[in-house]
């Protein structure tokens, strides 16, 4: 069966609102390290990791063996009504690594579920359904998670169980605060928060949920220290801080293990997902015990923290720490970021190369403006694939190429991918001229 046949079958049984990458969609059939192979036998360097999920690469022996050991027991599921040794061990590791004192952990299957659970805990703890969220954010596809998503392209319903007030993100390229210097943007964002609290809420707000770096939003982020400045105001009112670390966690930013640590603040709740399972469905919430204990009725997750996923999660975290992949993300990410900035400095179509560690983005605009150029972005995206490199897309306007390679990326692979990306950009810009 050809890929064209599979595509026809896909379209016949799956909804049209599930996007497929590329003009000619790919079927990936094998992977090893940082490379994947399609059904036609072509190999690609993977700079997107299944949307920042295969965090330590494909077919890692230590992870495969951990999962196979669990499979050999014959138990792939018991439910959390029974003790699960792998779950307890992983919760201990996550609690210790979170930086949150007296922490408890609740496991789910996805980032959406993790954020939904965090909102459940915060609203119960504060006895309020009022939420602060950030413009251009993305937190998931359930009703509450969509309700705090500040990106219209990902808000599939106007129905919302929450009352949400929106804050400026403090991004550097466009928007009201972009006109200010970085230090002034923090002060302006704090003023904005105070005004929102005074004008858009009825008091007793439950929480602020924020991504340290906005993932789907195109790896946009405000100045370091913004979350701490916000939290000073939140603490005056007893409002909780939820740090959505679904994409920024586990050392991906290089400089810190969690994105929140760049801000000099500790959140009350932290959500995680994606990379911790390296492809196995694993996510969760970690936070202060008194907040997690605020849920007033029985609640559990049938598949969350199951023996297979937590076996993988334990192996992933052990591998991550044993190989100091955070340091590798900083070192190899710098090769990419510095190389991209140097190679595109003369291109008016490149508005910004941004990000941290192995969480990098390139934003494309029409020359002399900050008007998004989604068409050019698509050409670059397709040209990368033609050159043997898989990247992602994103941003509020679809004009951002995103990269989230496995944290095991080597320096040689970084340079290889950089060369393909630079050539794709220059060829696409030339085509547009």
From TrEMBL:
Source organism superkingdom: Bacteria
Enzyme Commission number: 2.6.1.44
Keyword Lipoprotein: no
SUPFAM superfamilies linked to this entry: PLP-dependent transferases
EC supergroup of this enzyme: transferase
Sorted UniProt keywords: Aminotransferase, Pyridoxal phosphate, Transferase
Cofactor names: pyridoxal 5'-phosphate
Entry-linked InterPro entries: Aminotrans_3, PyrdxlP-dep_Trfase, PyrdxlP-dep_Trfase_major, PyrdxlP-dep_Trfase_small
One GO MF term: transaminase activity
Subunit structure: Homotetramer.
PANTHER family referenced in this protein's UniProt entry, alphabetically: ALANINE--GLYOXYLATE AMINOTRANSFERASE 2, MITOCHONDRIAL (PTHR45688:SF3), PTHR45688
Family listed: Belongs to the class-III pyridoxal-phosphate-dependent aminotransferase family.
Protein name (Swiss-Prot/TrEMBL): alanine--glyoxylate transaminase
């Amino acid at each position: 069966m050809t890929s064209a046949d599979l595509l026809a079958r896909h379209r016949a049984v799956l909804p049209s609102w599930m996007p497929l990458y590329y003009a000619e969609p790919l079927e990936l059939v094998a992977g090893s390290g940082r490379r994947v192979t399609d059904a036609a036998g072509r190999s690609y360097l993977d700079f997107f990791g299944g949307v920042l999920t295969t965090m330590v690469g494909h077919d890692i022996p230590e992870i495969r063996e951990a999962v196979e050991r669990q499979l050999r027991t014959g138990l792939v599921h018991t439910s959390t009504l029974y003790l699960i040794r792998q779950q307890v061990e992983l919760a201990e590791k996550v609690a210790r690594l979170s930086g949150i004192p007296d922490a408890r952990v609740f496991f789910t299957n996805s980032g959406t579920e993790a954020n939904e659970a965090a909102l459940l805990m915060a609203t119960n703890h504060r006895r309020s359904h009022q939420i602060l969220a950030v413009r251009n954010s993305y937190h998931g596809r359930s009703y509450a998670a969509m309700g705090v998503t500040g990106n219209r392209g990902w808000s599939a319903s106007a129905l919302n169980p929450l009352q949400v007030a929106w804050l400026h993100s403090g991004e550097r390229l466009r928007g009201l605060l972009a006109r200010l210097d970085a230090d002034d943007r923090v002060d302006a964002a704090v003023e904005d928060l105070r005004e929102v609290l005074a004008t858009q809420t009825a008091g007793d707000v439950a929480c602020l949920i924020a991504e340290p770096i906005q993932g789907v939003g195109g790896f946009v982020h405000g100045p370091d220290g913004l979350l701490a400045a916000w939290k000073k105001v939140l603490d005056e009112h007893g409002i909780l801080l939820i740090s959505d670390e679904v994409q920024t966690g586990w050392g991906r930013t290089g400089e810190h293990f969690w994105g929140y640590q760049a801000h000099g603040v500790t959140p009350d709740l932290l959500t995680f997902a994606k990379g911790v399972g390296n492809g196995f469905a694993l996510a969760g919430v970690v936070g202060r015990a008194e907040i997690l204990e605020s849920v007033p009725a029985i609640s559990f997750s049938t598949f969350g923290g199951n023996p297979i996923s937590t076996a993988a999660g334990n192996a992933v975290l052990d591998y991550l720490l044993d190989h100091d992949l955070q340091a590798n993300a900083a070192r190899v990410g710098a090769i990419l970021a510095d190389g991209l900035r140097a190679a595109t400095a003369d291109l008016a179509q490149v508005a910004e190369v941004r990000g941290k560690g192995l969480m990098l983005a390139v934003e494309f605009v029409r020359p002399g403006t900050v008007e998004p150029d989604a068409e050019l972005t698509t050409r670059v995206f397709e040209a990368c694939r033609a050159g043997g490199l898989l990247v992602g897309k994103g941003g509020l306007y679809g004009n951002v190429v995103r990269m989230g390679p496995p944290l095991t990326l080597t320096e040689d692979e970084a340079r290889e991918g950089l060369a393909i990306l630079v050539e794709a950009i220059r060829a696409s810009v030339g085509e547009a001229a």
